[in-house]
């Protein structure tokens, strides 16, 4: 009997979990454990990739693969815990208001989550699939892990600052302009994009096929989704609707980069002012001050 390689095994585990819990969510008519299962799937597939068919006599790169899996798990645990806490606190997730009315649509959301998970871990799967005879940590991988850690810390700190700001009753109806939000209007998204490129960089030295390098499209798709689909566009438009006539808001968005800190020339999304063109300066944008849209398939 020929054993399945890690690409097929993780694919089965990934979509198997989405199918089981997708059906369960339809039966229970709840979406509360959607993000938790997404995080659990990332962690399960990452460690499965490390230990599946691992042979110490042939592969001496266990330490590097374990570090890679730990990095993915740190991000998944952080995001899963944050979103699970938020949905429990709120009582529901507005992303699923319409989907819960149609079982097939809700199940499709779970399918999209499976696709999202697999794309995130695909570069690492090529790393896990490769065997190395020398027990070395390549310098390029170390650089990738440093990039990942910087992105994760940047994202975590910005999320924490936003949460503290929102929990202060004195800030109700206001927008945050302090901390990391003073150098980027979407610092959490900047960190998210950065950490996934870090994961790709860390995996790249272990690729044994030129085709594996095409998995750079995976973090790139995340970046494109954030910049042009479900992340920045939603929140920029929402900011305009809420604070479009506020002079302080106009000053904030005209002086703070939309994504990359300090680099105003890197504005990846521009939106014309709606209903307030005469009150605001030319080139006016809005900001990520509403409820943060997750980098998840349902927002597409």
Description:
By secondary structure, the protein is mainly α. 59% of the residues lie in helices and 0% in strands. The protein has 9 helices and no strands. α2 packs parallel to α4. The longest helix is centred in the first third of the chain and has 29 residues. The radius of gyration is 21 Å and the shape is globular. About 8% of the residues have low confidence.
* Shape call: globular
Rg calculated over all Cα atoms: 21 Å
The CA-CA distance between the termini, in Å, is 41 Å
Mean pLDDT across every amino acid position: 85
Bin the strand percentage: under 5%
Number of strand segments: 0
Low-confidence parts lasting 5 or more residues at pLDDT below 50? 268-290
Structural class: mainly alpha
Can you give the helix content as a percent range? 55-70%
Task: Count every helix, treating DSSP H or I runs of 4 or more residues as helices.
Answer: 9
Main sheet: strands, sense, barrel: none
Written as H for each helix and E for each strand, in order along the chain, the element string is: HHHHHHHHH
């Amino acid at each position: 009997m020929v054993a399945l390689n890690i690409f097929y095994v993780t694919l089965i585990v990934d979509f198997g979990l989405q199918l089981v819990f997708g059906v369960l969510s339809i039966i229970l008519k709840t979406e509360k454990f959607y993000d938790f299962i997404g995080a659990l799937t990332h962690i399960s597939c990452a460690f499965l990739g490390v230990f599946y068919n691992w042979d110490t006599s042939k592969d001496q790169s266990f330490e590097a693969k374990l570090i890679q899996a730990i990095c993915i798990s740190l991000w998944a645990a952080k995001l899963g815990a944050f979103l699970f806490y938020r949905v429990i606190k709120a009582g529901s997730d507005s992303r699923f208001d319409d989907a819960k009315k149609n079982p097939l649509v809700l199940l499709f959301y779970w399918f999209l989550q499976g696709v999202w998970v697999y794309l995130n871990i695909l570069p690492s799967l090529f790393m896990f699939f490769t065997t190395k005879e020398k027990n070395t940590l390549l310098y390029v991988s170390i650089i990738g892990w440093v990039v990942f850690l910087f992105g994760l810390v940047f994202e975590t700190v910005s999320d924490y600052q936003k949460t503290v700001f929102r929990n202060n009753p004195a800030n109700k109806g206001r927008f945050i302009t302090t901390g990391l939000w003073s150098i980027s209007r979407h610092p959490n998204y900047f960190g998210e994009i950065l950490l996934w490129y870090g994961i790709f960089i860390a995996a790249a030295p272990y690729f044994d096929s030129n085709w594996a390098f095409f998995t750079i499209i995976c973090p790139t798709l995340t970046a494109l989704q954030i910049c042009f689909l479900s992340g920045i566009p939603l929140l920029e438009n929402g900011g305009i609707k809420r604070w479009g006539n506020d002079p302080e808001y106009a000053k904030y968005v005209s002086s703070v980069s939309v994504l990359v800190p300090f680099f105003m020339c890197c504005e990846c999304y521009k939106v014309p002012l709606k209903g307030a063109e005469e009150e605001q300066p030319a080139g006016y944008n809005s900001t990520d001050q509403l409820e943060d849209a997750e980098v998840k398939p349902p927002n597409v």
